């Protein structure tokens, strides 16, 4: 399979027609080999317009959804970004390729072990920091972050992650609540609080450990 040609088709056939217009983002998707971040037996599926399995119960977000989430956060060169649910590291590689200072948090030890060498190969000299921790913990030691990407579907945005967002920063993810269609959202933090707006309908793989806490009832 010609992966370089597959990346070009992904950019031109999946991203550009779906309102992804940021040049540096398109360039990063065109340069970073998605096939390297999925198991060898599944590389033929790496550039499909769909999620790509990477391990038990885990998958990469589809290219279109990931690209639109990142674009909505308006990443800028040199800004600090936190990725929650880094998986094998693909989204971290995209943001690092765009020149952001990236910290990637992942709870699965096998995925952490896989992500570190993959990122070292994909982004020589500017690898994201990969931290093994529970996803709800984020990485408070590096806070505040200008951008947080929760790379997967969650039923709610944990307050612990909002607390790690800088004033004026952006958080993007897919909200998947019972009884409602999943939707990509953009959260922005200011002195007045944290405001969430709907972006577009979207499906993404669910992230473990980010289940909504049940409310107490009499």
Task: Describe this structure as you would to a colleague.
With 218 residues, this protein is of the alpha/beta class. It has one domain (3-201): 3-Layer(aba) Sandwich (Rossmann fold), CATH 3.40.50. 27% of the residues lie in helices and 28% in strands. It contains six helices and nine strands, in the order ααββαβαβαββαβββ. It has a seven-stranded mixed sheet. Strands 1-2 form a two-stranded antiparallel sheet. Strand 1 and strand 2 (58-60) form a beta hairpin. The radius of gyration is 16 Å and the shape is globular. Residues 214-218 have low confidence and may be disordered.
The CATH architecture category equals 3-Layer(aba) Sandwich
Q: How large is the share of residues in beta strands? A: 25-35%
Number of helices: 6
Q: If you compute it from the alpha carbons, what radius of gyration comes out, rounded to the nearest whole angstrom? A: 16 Å
Question: Could you list the spans in which at least 5 consecutive residues all have pLDDT below 50?
Answer: 214-218
Q: Which fold name fills CATH's third level, the topology? A: Rossmann fold
Strand order of the largest sheet: 5-4-3-6-7-8-9
Keywords: Methyltransferase, Transferase
GO biological process, one term: methylation
Organism: Rhodovarius crocodyli
GO molecular function, one term: protein-L-isoaspartate (D-aspartate) O-methyltransferase activity
Topology of this protein?
Elements lengths: L2 H13 L7 H9 L20 E4 L2 E3 L2 H11 L6 E5 L5 H8 L3 E6 L2 H14 L6 E4 L12 E10 L4 H4 L2 E11 L7 E8 L2 E9 L17
Helix pairs in contact: 1-2
